[in-house]
Predict the structure of Alcohol dehydrogenase [acceptor].
Amino acid sequence: MDPVAEFDFVIVGAGSAGCLLANRLSANPDHRVLVIEAGGADNWFWIKVPVGYLYTIANPRTDWCFTTEADPGLAGRSIIYARGRVIGGCSSINAMIHMRGQASDYELWAHATGDERWLWGGPDRPGETLALYKELEDYFGGADDWHGAGGEIRVERPRVRWKILDAWQAAAAQVGIAPIDEFNRGDNAGSAYFHVNQRRGRRWSMADAFLHPVSHRPNLTIYTDTQAVRLLMDDQVREDQRRGAWTTAQHRATGVRLLKDGQTVDVRARREVILSAGAIGSPHLMQASGLGPAGLLTEYHVPVAVDLPGVGENLQDHLQLRTVYRVRGARTVNTLYRNWITRAGMGLQYLLMRSGPMTMPPSTLGAFAKSDPTLASADLEWHVQPLSLAKFGEPLHPFGAITPSVCNLRPSSRGHVRIADADPLTHPKISCNYLSTDADRDVAVRGLRMTRQIMAAPSLAPYHPEEMLPGPELSSDDDLQQAARELGTTIFHPVGTCAMGAFDPHGRPRSATTVLDTDCRVYRVAGLRVVDASAMPTITSGNTNAPVMLIAERAARAILR
């Protein structure tokens, strides 16, 4: 590499958003685009095999291997906090579940940002969200009122079904959660098998969708095994960049300092630097570069470039409460895996037909419902797995079992991401503050009670379900709150740490947590955007990869305009 290399756009992170941005921005041959990825190539066998998430999560080859701070809401536990560190980012190690969220999620975004384009939309209804999802999608059933065909993001049905999950779905219907065709039509209330980002039984990451098809372009450069350690800025801001959220810009982002092969190299961005390093990585790099809460930066002797109180704050995540039920007379992954003959059969079925248990996402069947009937939309989601284990990374239980896990889709608890010291290579402190509000604790209890109602329904009676976790002896609200603290864990959906928000007529943010405008431009810093899950003002109802692609597509169009 040259001592100083120049590009038009420098994108930090080859995750989901970074792959889309690289595709869109390099489509113009006059744009020189650089993508920087701290991890390596995504050509490892276990990345492409859907069940390979068992080997990619908590593996430094593909995962940053973050851990959270000890959390009072989790009975003082620290937990693994997986984030992709490989081409494709989290889309190379995630659950592959294609989930847009609900129309009500985007009403919250429109309210928080003052931008009605975020609304779901449809015939004679304002908003662009549904239309953009359709443009991005290549849906297995072809184009219709809800889906698109020919887009880059492949969406398929799961390639394996389980009788025990069909029975669970029937049991859910008996307590009022009806079967539906799918979850992606704006109102997810009901139960269905998840649609997945796969192509013919293989993981379809956002690198497969957007980056690999264009990696041959001569104006697109990709650096792997290269870590961004600092944003480069100057205080000369051109007049034509003092617009919108940049009205009071104090600095201009001019490039990025990189660490590659033990050497420090600066790259320059003639037009923009775009952070797509994720809800942990993007605020951490900003803080290490002097963009963040002034008090925090001063504490760790980082010179303050711009006091941005919202950087790293507003962290939101879905806390999943894993319950385990032993079942009898049912085929589950536990029962298949304990026999070497059936294990070999699973592998052979995958190699020959690209079907069977090896094509499974971490969760196969889902359900959405309201914890309170007065709510406008579902706030609970179940991920139901035909397997069980003590915790991630440990062996499967030696008995047949299922794991119906329930999570609060709209948590009111808020955490933060903060530098641990001035060294940008030191992992940040991640504090999730789960179950820190009365509302979240109440919803946790309701979710556990509703899970018990489903498991007690007649359709599951032939399988004699026996509650192993949290245990039938726990019956009071206090008991179940404590069980939630001891059982709860992340499903890896951190968002909101550089949130979009509304600005007043003078160009000032209306909320202290606002960092970006709705085009993902950083307040008070010209030439800098954050385009990833950090930008979400509030978390969506379900898996967050598809909403990240929505944000990235909108940001790409704004940049190209």
